[in-house]
């Protein structure tokens, strides 16, 4: 775990704990940080695949990487969201959580959080990366379709962006928005959401 950069604090974290399969499961819908070095009122959101370890008190390498880059770009509010909001110690646990039909309400609340941030944000950056094998293709494709429909319904295509990297492409080999972990972020650029396709079977 890491400390948050000195210029930011956690303004709001939408997190809860549910009981599933006889044990407690943490769910994080959103993490919003305030960049104290900015008065711009520009709001940036980043959509990842699933939550990192960051919480109210401690951060992690990826979250701090996003904070440092977006702070330098003068975004006053930075919100991190995910397709699948379950915080797990072992990533493979996501397969059962995402496939569990009784947790449909969790995903509905997560979709609502994403929609709210699409409308609120100045820029909305896609960075979820390739679908790992422990995330079912059916649920991943559904989440992708739902997100694309949200953007269209809210008329927010102009807000959609990708990171550009030094020595790495903005899109993965399979055509998904590349995750910034262990990459040097150069800037962000507008992106046509229609260019993202579901995986071939």
From TrEMBL:
<protein>
    <recommendedName>
        <fullName>DUF1643 domain-containing protein</fullName>
    </recommendedName>
</protein>
<dbReference type="InterPro" id="IPR012441">
    <property type="entry name" value="DUF1643"/>
</dbReference>
<dbReference type="Pfam" id="PF07799">
    <property type="entry name" value="DUF1643"/>
</dbReference>
């Amino acid at each position: 775990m890491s400390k948050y950069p000195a210029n930011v604090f956690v303004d709001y974290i939408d997190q809860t704990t549910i009981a599933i399969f006889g044990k407690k499961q943490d769910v994080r819908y959103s993490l919003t940080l305030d960049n104290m070095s900015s008065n711009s009122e520009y709001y940036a959101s980043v959509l990842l695949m699933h939550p990192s370890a960051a919480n109210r008190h401690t951060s992690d390498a990826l979250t701090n990487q996003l904070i440092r880059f977006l702070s330098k770009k003068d975004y006053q509010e930075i919100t991190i969201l995910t397709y699948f909001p379950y915080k797990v110690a072992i990533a493979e646990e996501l397969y059962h959580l995402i496939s569990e039909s009784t947790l449909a309400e969790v995903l509905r609340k997560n979709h609502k959080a994403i929609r709210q941030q699409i409308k609120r944000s100045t820029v909305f950056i896609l960075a979820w990366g390739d679908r790992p094998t422990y995330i079912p293709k059916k649920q991943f494709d559904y989440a992708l379709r739902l997100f694309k429909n949200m953007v269209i319904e809210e008329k927010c295509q102009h807000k959609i962006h990708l990171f550009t990297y030094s020595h790495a492409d903005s899109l993965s080999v399979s055509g998904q928005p590349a995750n910034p972990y262990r990459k040097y972020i150069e800037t962000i650029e507008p992106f046509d959401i229609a260019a993202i396709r579901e995986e071939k079977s």
